[in-house]
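Would you kindly consider the sequence and fold I have copied below?
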Amino acid sequence: MKKMTCNQLGGACDRVFSAETFDEIAAMSKKHGMEMFVKRDTAHLQAIGEMRELMKTPGAMKDWFESKRKEFEALSDS
């Protein structure tokens, strides 16, 4: 099991996600982000806005995603 925080995944808080694979942890982070969007959490809305800006540059989101995947893979199991 590996752990990453919302902050490590581009979010705005210290909530910890635990998963066996990066795809699982990315899905948890996305669900959390959607919950915070519905709640209109200001800090998370800002983080979501930053992600939207990143998506405007061709390839930037893919590069960001791959860097997070590599960060996850480098973590030790806990």
About this structure: The longest helix spans residues 22-38. Helices lie at 22-38, 42-55, 60-74. The two ends are 6 Å apart (CA to CA). Residues 2-74 form one domain.
